[in-house]
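U., I forgot to send this yesterday:
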Amino acid sequence: MKILIVSGEISGDIYGAKIAQEILRQNSSVTLFGIGGDRLKEICHNYIFDIAHNNAIGITERFSKRKLFKELFKSITAFLKETKIDRKTSTSTSSGV
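Result:
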């Protein structure tokens, strides 16, 4: 089974890594793919993109990082076209969600 874990910020990266560890503890034959930060990078078999250290708040920051987000979108699109993923999950610790 192939699982993609996506985290867009540092605290989500921590939770995503904990989820990844538990998945592997229960089933070591799972292949994990990650988009996030350093902790997911340590655990996932295939790391796609570091976004956790490049997040943006507000329209001004997002606009200033548009090239990064365009690169991220291209990387994810190419990855999903090439790889059949069985399960996907996203971690978020945003208040109000």
